[in-house]
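Milestone M4 deliverable, item 7.
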Amino acid sequence: METNMTAISLDATDCRILAVLQKEGRISNLDLAERISLSPSACLRRLRLLEEQGVVDHYRACLNREMLGFEMEAFVQVSMRNDEPNQQEQFAAALRDWPEVVGAYVVTGDTHYMLRVLAHNLKHYSDFVLTKLYKTRGVTDVHSLIVLQTLKPETGVPVELVSQKAEKAAERAEKSTNA
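Output delivered:
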């Protein structure tokens, strides 16, 4: 999997568009334009460009997991054996088929993977660990961290930091042209 580490240059208006969209993905173009003080056509042009550049990756609805019966959330650290060929690929393929896993990350430290898991209750979670995780070839250790309370549920990108970076770059450019 190839990743592009080049950040796209955004101005303050782009950042305001992104900040509003992250909070209100279904906002109409007319309302978005009014909120950021642009004409609707200029706003739509900028939004389409952000979509074409891949800055706006996709749109989705945020669901309330508890209303849907998922009472339990856990972060699960999984350690694997390192001596079997294709083991990492097999594990990655297996976890893509597990609906309980809603996030999966390769991490540094004493463990290899961090999974975010949703379950209806403790029995459902226990069944997941015992029948799926522990039965997966190469898994040597599973360490569960049960979420007691979510303090900051944000899943977006901190656009305000991008905005600060854009403002500093604009200030530097202005100083260099005035010098």
